[in-house]
UniProtKB/TrEMBL annotation:
<dbReference type="Pfam" id="PF04226">
    <property type="entry name" value="Transgly_assoc"/>
</dbReference>
<feature type="transmembrane region" description="Helical">
    <location>
        <begin position="63"/>
        <end position="83"/>
    </location>
</feature>
<keyword id="KW-1133">Transmembrane helix</keyword>
<dbReference type="GO" id="GO:0005886">
    <property type="term" value="C:plasma membrane"/>
</dbReference>
<keyword id="KW-1003">Cell membrane</keyword>
<protein>
    <submittedName>
        <fullName>Transglycosylase</fullName>
    </submittedName>
</protein>
<feature type="transmembrane region" description="Helical">
    <location>
        <begin position="29"/>
        <end position="51"/>
    </location>
</feature>
<keyword id="KW-0472">Membrane</keyword>
<feature type="transmembrane region" description="Helical">
    <location>
        <begin position="6"/>
        <end position="22"/>
    </location>
</feature>
<dbReference type="InterPro" id="IPR007341">
    <property type="entry name" value="Transgly_assoc"/>
</dbReference>
<comment type="similarity">
    <text>Belongs to the UPF0410 family.</text>
</comment>
<keyword id="KW-0812">Transmembrane</keyword>
Length: 89
């Protein structure tokens, strides 16, 4: 059940991050899920030590973990855009 919640919340977080970074037209639902879950993993290593909390991949679904996972997804999309387009946006 936790894996299903991680995939569902990761998909929503990836979708919101892709809207913010203007890559939503290039991604489908599968890539939104991947971006959300990989963004949560990035948040676990980089963002949560700075702001506290836990990423959604650890099973925590509070506001701080959702915010950290969202920031991780935005960082992931910024890195991808930097290599693809030569700019963050």
């Amino acid at each position: 059940m936790t894996l299903l919640l991680i995939l569902l919340v990761g998909g929503i977080i990836g979708w919101l991050a892709s809207i913010l970074m203007r890559t939503d037209a290039q991604q489908g639902i599968f890539l939104n899920i991947v971006v959300g879950v990989v963004g949560a993993v990035i948040a676990g290593f980089i963002i949560t030590p700075l702001i506290g909390g836990a990423p959604i991949t650890s099973g925590a679904f509070d506001i701080m973990s959702l915010f950290a996972s969202f920031l991780g997804a935005v960082v992931l999309l910024a890195i991808v855009n930097l290599f693809r387009r030569g700019s963050v946006r």
